[in-house]
Each structure stands twice: as structure tokens, then as C-alpha cells.
Write a structure and sequence with these properties.
11% strand; 11 helices; Rossmann fold; 44% helix; 210 residues
């Protein structure tokens, strides 16, 4: 029986940052999906992973990411990448969360960086206060020193919500982040669009969410 619904934030409540990455690449004549390729190389210990665990500051990330980009033969400062994370809100997902809250516990596990935490939520940033405040529990990678897909961060959320993994639905836009949640027993939904995610979430919860 489902008792909790746990969400990722970016790419779920907002449009995918991959779209912004691609715009940046096109505008600068860079290869398509270069930033994604950099981020997926040595993904547990690269610049992005260290920044999301708050092991380096913005200056450190800027230099490490630039070095990783240089290894691919291109110049991409890390500082250029951070603003690309903010996307457009998907209002249908916000409404789904509002309805989910009436029946289920809710949580959010988000990988973020020290310069972009929920305390810095403001217009134009990734996080929107009106959405963040709806979650019963919120876990931010840069605050706890763990990041998805480390299984410990999912266990931490289950403990915070006082639920077992098999009592949870977990939504994320990245398959790599869904894999450990599914292995723990959670029902997982990969978010490709708001409409698709809501249809699958309705099937999982038995609720009408639109």
C-alpha cells in the first residue's frame, strides 16, 4: 500500500535543464550534449558530484568543470553551467502535488549546490518557495553531504517520513537516480513530461490529479 510520494525537483516540477544545456551549446557552437557527457563521466567523483556534496565551493567547481571540459577539447567555465539549472515551472505537476498532499505523505530529494539551496529560492532560480513549502520533508544533497544515486539518501527520506521503501512512489527525470530507489522496493516513475508523469502517478495512487 502506498503511503508516500517522493519527488525530485528540477526536471520534475520544472522543465529539464538539458534543454538549457542544449541551448547554451548551440549558441556557442559546442557539440550537442557536451555538458551531459561531461557530467556523466566519472559521475560519482567529478566536479558536479563534488559540488553537490558541498566538497568544493563555486570557485573550485568552476576550475574543476573547466578542466573536465578541456579534456573533451572545449572551453566551458563551470560558472556558466549553474544558471542553466533553472527551468520553467510545470503548473500541472504543482497541482498534482497539491492533490497528493491531501492523502499521502510527501517528500523531495534534490541534488543541488551550496550556491543554489532552497534558502536562496527567488524568481528566476531553480526552487520556488510556494512549491518547496508543500513538502512534508526536504533533503538537499549539499546540506547532507550525500547525493543521488547514493542509496543512503533514499533511506534517509524513508526514515524522515516514517515509511518503508515499498510504501513509496519515487519520481525523477534521471534513470540513474531511479535505479537504487527501485532496488530498495519503491515504485518508480521516470518523468519525461508532466502529462506522462501524472498519468503514471494517477495509476499508482488511484487519485485524480488534474
Amino acid at each position: 500500500m502506498i503511503r508516500a510520494v517522493i519527488f525530485d525537483f528540477g526536471g520534475v516540477f520544472t522543465s529539464s535543464p538539458f534543454e538549457a544545456f542544449n541551448r547554451y551549446e548551440r549558441e556557442r557552437g559546442l557539440p550537442d550534449n557536451l555538458i551531459r557527457k561531461i557530467n556523466s563521466t566519472n559521475h560519482l567523483e567529478n566536479a558536479w558530484a563534488k559540488f553537490e556534496r558541498a566538497e568544493v565551493d563555486l570557485d573550485g567547481f568552476d576550475k574543476l568543470f573547466a578542466a573536465e571540459a578541456k579534456a573533451f577539447g572545449h572551453d566551458v567555465p563551470g560558472r556558466d553551467v549553474i544558471p542553466l539549472l533553472a527551468g520553467d515551472v510545470r503548473p500541472e505537476m504543482v497541482e498534482a502535488l497539491r492533490r497528493i498532499k491531501t492523502k499521502f505523505k510527501t517528500g523531495c530529494i534534490t541534488n543541488n549546490v551550496p550556491s543554489m539551496t532552497t534558502e536562496n529560492a527567488k524568481p528566476g532560480s531553480l526552487y520556488r518557495r510556494e512549491i518547496i513549502d508543500m513538502f512534508d520533508r526536504l533533503i538537499e544533497s549539499s546540506k547532507v553531504g550525500l547525493r543521488k544515486p547514493d542509496p543512503r539518501i533514499y533511506t534517509m527520506m524513508c526514515e524522515a517520513l516514517s515509511v518503508a521503501p515499498e510504501e513509496c512512489v519515487y519520481l525523477d527525470d534521471l534513470g540513474g537516480n531511479l535505479k537504487p530507489a527501485r532496488a530498495m522496493g519503491m515504485l518508480t516513475i521516470r518523468v519525461e513530461s508532466g502529462r506522462q508523469a501524472i498519468a503514471e502517478l494517477e495509476a499508482a495512487t488511484g487519485m485524480r490529479l488534474t
